[in-house]
């Protein structure tokens, strides 16, 4: 069974709002085992909406629409859907009462045009709107379905959760389970070349690499009649992949890099401090995203100037003189220095050229040195990162945390 | 002239990522006076992509695609577009060199499948990718255009800005000019109530308030045959609005809060240091987004623990004892302390409860105190911010910079 999502609204077509409804519905439908092959967006225009419905009904069993259920004349989704299915609308007393009640509760007087929201074709399943006035509906004709949902995400999601999901579950006999591996330190092409045979070996589960938030992800998706079977199909694939590229996989699903690193520090009872130049506080700020970090995070320093590197971290002026602020040696002394000054087991240091100015032929924009100190041993990695100033600093931060993760794995 | 946007990628169809590319392109095209009537999304599937192209070409002059230009086998957008236009691809030496250079710079080995990205049909306009490896292209056949752009927003946007926009400008005869006022410290409803008469007065320019990146924006858009006329229509409106809510407007268009504040500091020759608790380095990291900041930014401290507040900032232990770490008094001593220790004219301090744990009835999650020290005078503002841990810390950072801006305006 397959479905298609039509988002209705001129505000989407003009780019005034981001269409998060389609993303939400696509994910929910995938998890219900309902294939979504097309999503589309059209404005509040009858001809184009009819066109979208007719195209959609040719290729899909179910069309789910969001938006265009408001009280004003430019809200036409329900009317157009009925036209396409050639179904007449009549007032639904029950819905009308609920709308009147909604306004009464808010102490707002209900205007005539709100009544429009209480009209539905005979035999339609009417979907309650607990967060607004516009009810939704499920229309059916010759094994084709049009499911009409409101546009405001708060109203749409609750309606889908409460009424549409259970309805679709009964229709679908398959579910999709998806697991995501989060990788760092390997490129998309290299990854694929290392696991291409595994990818090509089978189509259930499917394996798809993609980039999200400047990181590489690998999604393994299994289709089955129940969750346990699906997971049993996914597990061996994950193991296979781990054998090939395990050290690049830092987490699964929704676990963040800072969560992984913070948990390792807490578990190993290692205190940490940070000395940041080019990242300017992003490393500490990212670590502190993890609520439990306070037990091990002692202090962070943003030593942007040479003076502060000398005064706060005890970097040797000669080192800065001889090798420069952006150098392996300086990164090393920064990491050692802050660990010593703040008396922590672990320290991270960053120094680099984020640009746009300040690059030279031997020290280009994007050059970043990251130092990791753990119980007396300091290692420094050199990176050439691409992107604008902000991206270079974000990538430097991600690399710093990943470098720390790899060092902690050795313990 | 009308265009339509096709977003290609299974990650969109499965709801793994939000499709912000379509939103960006829709907005940009509207500003170019090019009508967009349809947006659609399809997975990396040849038949369905062909179907989407053919449907689109029936009803639109221009099709713009994003995604599916990667090096892997499931990236097929360019190949399918050429098939639809019946155009043969051949290797473009110039693009190949650029891709090889990209990998060389990063010191990463280039794999065979990256070469795929250098193939284009004869006569196509090849679009440089300054942020990645995959070049885009403009294909033309019998007055129909297919414009192929990469999926990663950073790559797509830069390519559109630099090469596609000028190209489309030449094709369109009417233009929309849009200016954006960025506001902080005022709510959407209050803003609208203050300028509703100006909004209703006219429809060209139009005035639209909206929320972006947790901030309030006001977009003024004029339609005209040339840019100068459009700007002359917009200017008086902006002046009118400034008369009403001027102090909440911190910048126009693409100027960031950190740019505004940094420029004020540099212009007034004021050095700055930061002492952060709940924001954990976000304030310094945000300031350092501005490249020129190094001349005034002396040092930042992430004093997450009480000890560090005492040792590094000289906060009085009794103050922490009596009022707690999250208090007006502590914020005040933190700001004073860091300004004194690091000998700067200006200092920012933040202390608060970002949650999810740690809230009490009198000190709830979201309570944040922000201290601003300028040449001896310290002021502290109290905020109750909403959202999750990350949002509270981001809002605290934005408020800290805005508080500083307002203090600097008084000088």
UniProtKB/TrEMBL annotation, chains A, B:
NCBIfam families named among the record's database cross-references: cinA_nterm (TIGR00200), molyb_syn (TIGR00177), PncC_domain (TIGR00199), PRK00549.1 (NF001813)
InterPro entries: CinA, CinA-like_C, CinA_C, CinA_KH, Competence-induced_CinA, MoaB/Mog-like_dom_sf, MoaB/Mog_dom
Protein name listed in UniProt: Putative competence-damage inducible protein
Family: Belongs to the CinA family.
HAMAP family: CinA_B
Domain MoaB/Mog: 4-170
Classification of source organism: Bacteria, Bacillati, Bacillota, Clostridia, Peptostreptococcales
Species annotation: Romboutsia ilealis
